[in-house]
Specification:
The protein is of the alpha/beta class. It has 7 helices and 5 strands, in the order βαβααβαβααβα. It has one domain: P-loop containing nucleotide triphosphate hydrolases (Rossmann fold, 3-Layer(aba) Sandwich), CATH 3.40.50.
Length: 186
């Protein structure tokens, strides 16, 4: 029987959440683990009723992701969730619903690195006034830095992607081994 360990990767747009999740998935699968990545952007796009980026829509998207994790948990050994997840109260609810063997991974990155990286062009659009309310960049839509992260990974320009992937991989292996020691049949 499988019961996935869940790693919920939170951070601003462009911190590398999805890239990190996909690289970790590839490494874990190569080592024989079954892994699911539940990407927040893909979940948001998969529903007919399109959500915006206001606080209530963010909460709804996060709860949809929680439901997917609950439904898929028995089918995988590891689930990785790359999603901005900017609201502390919603993250607390998420932890309550998905414990045990649930971990917050906070990807921290300075704004200058994010603006240079800007894979979706969001920071440039925000600077030009083409979009308003960019999460964590606009005063009207703050990102609440998690005070209860189980691990913080710095993904600023001074840290290589390989270094971040290695640190994340070590954390996943450590937490997965802890689960195996406590529940060897899972």
């Amino acid at each position: 029987m499988k019961k996935a360990v869940i790693f919920w990767c939170t951070g601003l747009s462009g911190t590398g959440k999805t890239t990190l999740a996909n690289r970790a998935k590839k490494q874990l699968e190569a080592a024989g683990s079954s892994v699911l990545v539940v990407d927040g952007d893909k979940v948001r796009a998969s529903y007919e009723d399109k959500l915006g980026f206001g606080r209530s829509d963010i909460k709804e998207n996060n709860m949809r992701i929680v439901a997917i994790c609950e439904a898929e948990r028995e089918n995988y050994e590891v689930i990785i969730v790359p999603v901005i997840s900017p609201i502390d109260d919603v993250r607390k609810i998420t932890r309550e619903k998905l414990e045990p063997f649930f971990y917050f991974v906070y990807l921290s990155c300075d704004i200058d690195s994010l603006k240079r990286r800007d894979p979706k062009g969001l920071y440039g659009k925000a600077d030009r006034g083409e979009i308003r309310g960019l999460i964590g960049y606009s005063a009207s839509n703050p990102y609440e830095v998690p005070m209860d992260a189980d691990i913080t990974l710095n993904t600023s320009s001074s840290v290589t992607l390989d270094e971040s992937v290695e640190a994340f991989g070590r954390f996943i292996r450590k937490k997965s081994l802890e689960k195996q020691r406590i529940f060897p049949d899972c």
